[in-house]
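Reading a protein record of the kind used here takes little practice once its layout is understood. The reader may check this reading against the record printed directly beneath this paragraph.
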Amino acid sequence: MDDEQLLTVDEAAARLRVSRWTLYCLIRSEELRSVKIRRRRLIPVGAVAECIHNLMEMA
């Protein structure tokens, strides 16, 4: 994977237009996939799209 396929927490929160707190809640509830590399939590770009799709289905 290259850097463009992984988003930081702040970048993913900005794309979803939610706070960092909400983003971490989505990760904890397993509604948003993420990977941990050492101390960094990163979110695959595709996981953001999946999360949006799943949330739209539930709405």
Helices lie at 9-16, 20-28, 45-58. The chain has one domain: 3-58.
